[in-house]
Design brief:
Radius of gyration: 23 Å
Number of helices: 19
Distance between the termini: 54 Å
Number of strands: 21
Strand order of the largest sheet: 6-3-7-8-9-10-11-16-15-14-12-13
């Protein structure tokens, strides 16, 4: 009954979503006009001539591309209570995310406008699309198991907090939602993930859970505790009415088989969402299509820089209506949280336009290009999926980095992989991975030609729990924290190897 009532409530929004099919460019122009008009009297707006902006061309001319470093000083003033800096009024909430070269953490402002019209709007639309595709759904007849992080005071400012985005969303969620979610708020916001995981399992064990929301790696950790506590083999033996997992944060491919192993229902659904600290950007509007729909009518205006332009003094940057399918772009956003032409650090590739659908290909800083091979996370995920399919292996976590040229001018990529199910022959797995990377990446193939520049990749099997222990040691266990997949330096992999050798 609850689901049928909810389905009726989503009807009007489902009709509005149809504008994404052929009205994407105009939706984005409307967002740009809204953002500029709202912020014209802020410190940033007055100093960048927002009152004189009449077109996208004006906007791009008057505002430089920014990273966190460029906006940090203004954000810090906002955190200390100053108003009308990057966005009208004061901002109480700051999403804490992984840091920059100069700082351990970034603090992304989450305005009241952004909270409601970006982040929560994305969550509502995920459900709207899911209900459109599943007329027999009973999602609201059960509970939602939602994982979250934690938060803490912000500079001791009254009523102002910093924390994981998921914690901010849980803290501000509509009280009615708490009636259909689990765990209770106090448990959800605990900072100790190991304690939280146990309590979540205990609270959820006897509830009628119908849907899950969270990062695949951390959710898998919680579900394994649920199985241990219940003595059951499959999650659907514990929760017979479970039907969908809304996931995001990391690519799902490495975890797919593990979820199939613990959730046996043939009609279990998985919907990918793209919800970052900086905003909610996309969701899988069609469960049969792995590409996500770019959400165009929230408070986010998008621009895109081809990765071939990265590092140039005057790079080519295009708005949404200038993108082409198949090009790898760095994404740039302007939002109602006060981020202006902000380089988010993610890279995307469009599979089509009208509607604009895309996949996340990686990070602008998470790649290996030590020898001109330009290996990105999307390549790595596809290569691992290929090797796993042919060997029956399952990957739990991994990271990879270059081994630089030695005295004999030999070099290679080194992969540290923690397997949920190890392959029978690790050398065969490595050969399959290496071969598929060559098949899908011509630059990698050229560098691997006859082993002249780049020798065959090396795989080191990590012991169980290594990545978990490493993340715990860095204070990044649970929440929205993610293992860095690819790196041009050996910082992460050497730290992991040192930890492995010390155990």
């Amino acid at each position: 009954m609850l689901t049928e009532l909810a389905r009726f409530g989503f009807t009007s929004r489902q009709r509005k979503l149809e504008r994404h099919i052929n009205g994407g460019a105009e939706l984005q122009r409307e967002v740009l006009r809204y953002l500029v008009d709202e912020a014209k009297d802020t410190l940033f707006g007055t100093s960048h001539g927002f009152a004189n902006i009449r077109s996208y061309k004006d906007f791009a001319k008057q505002i430089p591309i920014n990273t966190y470093e460029e906006l940090k000083g203004l954000i810090d003033r906002m955190r200390r209570g100053e108003r009308d800096i990057l966005w009208p009024g004061g901002v109480r909430w700051y999403a804490k995310s992984s840091g920059t070269t100069n700082d351990k953490s970034k603090f992304i402002p989450v305005s009241a406008d952004g909270l409601q019209n970006v982040h929560y709007a994305g969550g509502r639309d995920a459900v709207a699309f899911y209900l459109m595709q599943n007329p027999k759904s009973r999602i609201f007849d059960g509970r939602a198991l939602i994982l979250g992080g934690s938060h803490s005071p912000n500079y001791n400012m009254a009523g102002s907090l910093v924390g994981d985005l998921s914690a901010i969303l849980i803290e501000n969620i509509n009280p009615l939602v708490n009636m259909v979610r689990v765990p209770k708020k106090r448990t959800a916001l605990l900072s100790d993930f190991e304690v939280k995981r146990r309590l979540i399992a205990e609270e959820a064990l006897r509830k009628n859970v119908s849907n899950l929301s969270g990062v695949p790696s951390w959710m898998l950790s919680v579900l394994n505790v649920v199985l241990e506590r219940s003595g059951k083999k499959h999650i659907d033996d514990v929760w017979p009415n479970i039907e969908v997992f809304f996931h995001g944060g990391v690519q799902f491919a490495p975890y797919r088989e593990q979820y199939r192993n613990i959730i046996a229902k043939p009609d279990m659904h998985y919907m990918e969402t793209y919800n970052a600290s900086e905003g909610f950007f996309g969701l899988q509007s069609n469960l049969a299509d792995p590409a996500m729909l770019l959400m165009l009518d929230y408070g986010v205006f998008y621009e895109f820089m081809p990765m071939t332009e990265m590092g140039k003094e005057n790079p080519e940057i295009v708005p949404l209506w200038g993108v082409e399918p198949g090009v790898n772009y760095a994404m740039i956003i302007s939002t109602s949280c006060g981020l202006w032409r902000y380089m988010i650090g993610d890279t995307v590739k469009f599979s089509q336009t009208n509607p604009y659908k895309f996949i996340i290909t990686g990070r602008t800083k998470h790649f290996i290009n030590a020898f001109g091979e330009e290996l990105i996370v999307d390549n790595a995920e596809k290569g691992l999926e290929y090797a796993c399919n042919l060997t029956g292996a399952q990957v739990l976590e991994y990271t990879a980095a270059p081994v630089f040229m030695d005295a004999k001018a030999t070099c290679r990529h080194q992969w540290l992989i923690e397997f949920a199910k190890a392959p029978a022959d690790l050398n065969e797995f490595a050969q399959l991975l290496d071969g598929h990377l060559q098949a899908i990446n011509s630059d990698y193939e050229a560098k691997r030609y006859k082993d002249i520049t780049l020798q065959p990749l090396e795989i080191i099997a990590a012991p169980e729990g290594l990545f978990n222990d490493w993340m715990k040691g860095r204070g990044k266990l649970g929440g929205q924290n993610k293992v860095p997949r690819l790196s041009n330096s050996r910082e992460h992999i050497d730290a992991l190897l040192n930890l492995m050798n010390s155990e």
